[in-house]
Amino acid sequence: MNDSLEKQRGAVALVVAASLVALLSVVALGVDVGHVMIVRNQIQNAADAAALHGASYLYSQGSTPNFSAGGPAVTNATSAVGLNMNVTSNDSVNVAANYWQALNPSAPSNEAAVRVSLSKQVKLYFAPIFGMQHANVSASATAIVQSPTTMGQGAINVPMAIGSCMFNQYWDSANNKPKTDPNTNQPYVFQIGSSYAYNSGGGNGEDGHGGGNCTSGQWTPLSSQQDNSDSTIQQCFEHGNSSTLQANKDQIWLQTGDKNNLYDYVNNCSESGNRSCEYSTVPVVNTVNPGSEQNITAMACLHIISATGGSGKYVTAQMSTGCSPNNASGSGASYGVVAPPKLAQ
Predict the structure, then answer these.
(1) Residue 36 pLDDT
(2) Distances in Å between the alpha carbon of 218 and those of 141, 195, 258?
(3) Residue 236: pLDDT above 90?
(4) What is the enclosing helix (H) or strand (E) of 238?
(5) Consecutive H or E run containing 245
(6) Does any domain span residue 345?
(7) What predicted TM-score, i.e. pTM, was given to this entire model?
(8) Rounded Cα gap, residues 222 and 245, in angstroms
């Protein structure tokens, strides 16, 4: 009987030993898996941060997005990876900039984008017992720059609306950039004012005083309030729009009259002045009809060259790109205004 009991004890010891080995193996595997998951989250965060950082350099004022390998978007995204991840010779860092659908053909829209793809070799602690020394983990992130439709309080500080017909005339919608004057190889220069009308769809480069059917623009209090005072416009120059404005939702009032003294405000902050409003976001309306409320259809970027009062009463400007107003959001038609980058879903 004692011999039988001893044999049972030996068998139990073997089972316990085997169970302990299996249990320790599971615990060890759990430690390595947990470590790999932590590193995976770390490199995903690094990819997210680098893509967002790089995308913030896609546009500069007055230029189309720079997708080149040596451009600021790619180089800054690449540098940002090292700030959030220890990159070794065994790791892989790939950064590309292009329109979203060029980077991902199944993308639902085609904004300018930066994609960061990372791969890291992770050393394992217990798996080498089973012959596995390392695990490779990877992560990818794409940040896009959208054209905003909503301007928060203070985002617009040049209180002038322009007619959508001006974009038929001077904007290349197929390539999301201004049309180029063949005589200068620069965007067309035009005048904005209630007495300046162009022939919609007609010859580019006309001076706007020909009595065309496309009125270029007019002063607005940047609200629907029927306010024709100069003082309200001056307040807009100093503080911007007093409330949020959203394209395809809100209306704004177009003032009557030419407001001769207001052109000095524009000239002082234009390219000819201190340049504080040289690149400005303005609302676009369907029709410029002074003394009426008009629907906002989009937000546009203007390069404001100068402004002339007296007998002229016009703002000289070009369509442009790269206007980055604070407090902007949403996504809509691209007329050169860009919002802060966001991660693509």
Answers:
(1) 73
(2) 43, 9, 8
(3) yes
(4) helix 230-239
(5) strand 245-246
(6) no
(7) 0.77
(8) 8
Mention every residue, 6+ apart, whose C-beta is less than 8 A from residue 193.
208, 216, 217, 218, 258, 312, 313, 314, 315
The per-residue pLDDT for 247 is 95
Q: State yes or no: pLDDT of 203 exceeds 50.
A: no
Residue 121 pairs in a beta bridge with 136
Report the b/e string of 252-288 with b at 16+ CB within 10 A: bbbbeebbeebbebbbebbbbbeeebbbbbbbbbeeb
Residue 65 lies in a domain: yes
Q: Do residues 171 and 285 both lie within one domain?
A: yes
Query: Could you report the per-residue pLDDT of 85-120, keeping only the tens digit for each?
Result: 888 888 899 999 999 999 999 999 889 999 999 999
- Over residues 218-225, the mean pLDDT reads 95
Q: How many domains does the chain have?
A: 2
User: Above 90 in pLDDT, residue 219?
Assistant: yes
Please write the tens of the pLDDT for every residue from 19-46: 555 555 555 565 666 667 887 888 999 9
Helix (H) or strand (E) holding 279: strand 279-285
Sheet holding 245-246, edge to edge: 245-246, 150-151, 328-329
| pLDDT on residue 318 | 95
Write down the residue that tokens 């980055």 correspond to.
324
Q: How far apart are CA 72 and CA 75, in angstroms?
A: 5
Domain that residue 74 falls in: 2-145
Indicate the helix (H) or strand (E) that contains 252: strand 251-254
Residues 175 and 270 in one domain: yes
- Long-range Cβ contacts of 89-94 (<8 Å, 24+ apart): 90/120, 90/121, 91/118, 91/119, 91/120, 91/121, 92/117, 92/118, 92/119, 92/120, 92/138, 93/117, 93/118, 94/118
Partners of 162 in beta bridges: 217, 284
| Bridging pattern class, strands 292-308 and 314-319 | antiparallel
The reply to whether 342 falls in a domain is no
